[in-house]
Amino acid sequence: VKMRSLAPGIKLITSFSRDSWYRFFILILTFVFYTTYHLSRKPISIVKVIKNNYQNLFGVLDNCFLVAYAIGMFFSGMFGERLPLRYYLSSGMILSGLFTVLFGLGFYWQIHSLWYYCLVQALNGLVQTTGWPAVVACVGNWFGKGKRGFIMGIWNSHTSVGNILGSLIAGVYVSSSWGLSFIVPGIIIASAGVICFLFLVESKSHMLDIWGICLFVHESVEQEPLLRNSSSNEEIFSTNTSTAVEPEEDHTEAISFCGALRIPGVVEFSLCLLFAKLVSYTFLYWLPLYIANVAHFDPKEAGDLSTLFDVGGIVGGILAGLISDYSGGRATTCCAMLIIAAPMLFLYNKIGQNGLPTTIGMLLWCGALVNGPYALITTAVSADLGTHECLRGNSRALSTVTAIIDGTGSIGAAIGPLLAGLISPTGWNNVFYMLIAADVLAFESIMLLSRLVYKEVRGWCGYTTRQRG
């Protein structure tokens, strides 16, 4: 009897184990969740284009959100390690959707009180802190070791994808009914929160009761960095069925705030992210207005054009992860991109509006160089430090370390847009001088790790594979 072969697509699907499919599912799910977080943050930068006479007012609103976000982030990681991630993340998304919708409803309710919008923005900033530590911890629970910065660079593009979608959605309504620019993203993130509650599986161990037996191979060296290069050909999604083994006992005591600060490199990379995020978030909140004022585009065109900065950010994040994986140098990759970013910002301010092709090219370059180090620090570096060898396998430090690094960066994210609002009336040149100075300070901060950079470069010169601590 002639046997009929399976269709190639079915062969591909069945070649992956159940472990692999759950990992892929979690990666996609967390990508979508954090995309909606940034999607709901972006509309205010589009709406301020039609309210050109209220730059200082919008600077205040930006700061209400960002200061609350920065303060809340330092506590969010500790909550995330002590509460069920599914409840923590889904409740944060639903509440964020509620406050985003309330901001938009102010247009229809004809609310003209600054305090109303400031309060809504501050509360939204607090609940948005649930996002980053939770998704990083969730991914860390599923991907134990030997995972590549290239894959995490792609995953981290959710930030830029969210900014792009938020700009496009807000741009549709900004000229006619700006309230919908907030209401629609608010409904989207709240809906994603419901999906999170229904489908998120926050760790591999939670599937054991369902399956009855352990179908996952326990990671034997849990303290290895999440994104460390593997000398073997290990892939994120293994095509081999996992072997049933007994899980090792994990350290259940969560790390303290001061304990996380003592991890080598946490303070230095946190300071670097402070200045890098200052530059990135200034672009996030003020780039559409800059394009509208300097290049004289209408609000929708300015919002659409500003998405190119985020497109460049996607490419920069992926390249930063790929280069750091290939070279073995996280710190050196950040330094190199920050060095190039400063003159590129200067050039964008001087010649960036000399024709549409020049504008597009400069936005892509600036986005890649500014967001590349930002993406690398918030993913690969945070994961490396959160699973540092000095923790002796304590897998519950990742959320707190991530929150400290991102919380420090969020201080810069709050300062940048505020300074831009204060400086922009004196001229956009001065805003760019401030951004260039911040980029240089980011470089100086990471040079506090000059010994690490030296070791990385020495490893390249000797053509040896260096293990990161």
TrEMBL record:
One Pfam family of this chain: MFS_1
Chief localisation class: endoplasmic reticulum
Membrane topology per record: Multi-pass membrane protein
Transmembrane residue ranges: 21-37, 57-75, 87-108, 114-143, 155-174, 180-201, 266-287, 307-324, 331-348, 360-385, 397-419, 431-449
Keywords: Antiport, Endoplasmic reticulum, Glycoprotein, Membrane, Sugar transport, Transmembrane, Transmembrane helix, Transport
GO biological process: phosphate ion transmembrane transport
Reactions listed under catalytic activity: D-glucose 6-phosphate(in) + phosphate(out) = D-glucose 6-phosphate(out) + phosphate(in)
Domain of life: Eukaryota
Any single GO CC term annotated in Swiss-Prot or TrEMBL for this entry: endoplasmic reticulum membrane
Domain Major facilitator superfamily (MFS) profile residues, every copy: 1-454
Keyword Transmembrane among UniProt keywords: yes
PANTHER family: GLUCOSE-6-PHOSPHATE EXCHANGER SLC37A2, MAJOR FACILITATOR SUPERFAMILY TRANSPORTER 16, ISOFORM B
Protein family: Belongs to the major facilitator superfamily. Organophosphate:Pi antiporter (OPA) (TC 2.A.1.4) family.
Protein name in the entry: Glucose-6-phosphate exchanger SLC37A2
Organism, scientific name: Cyprinus carpio
Gene of this entry: slc37a2
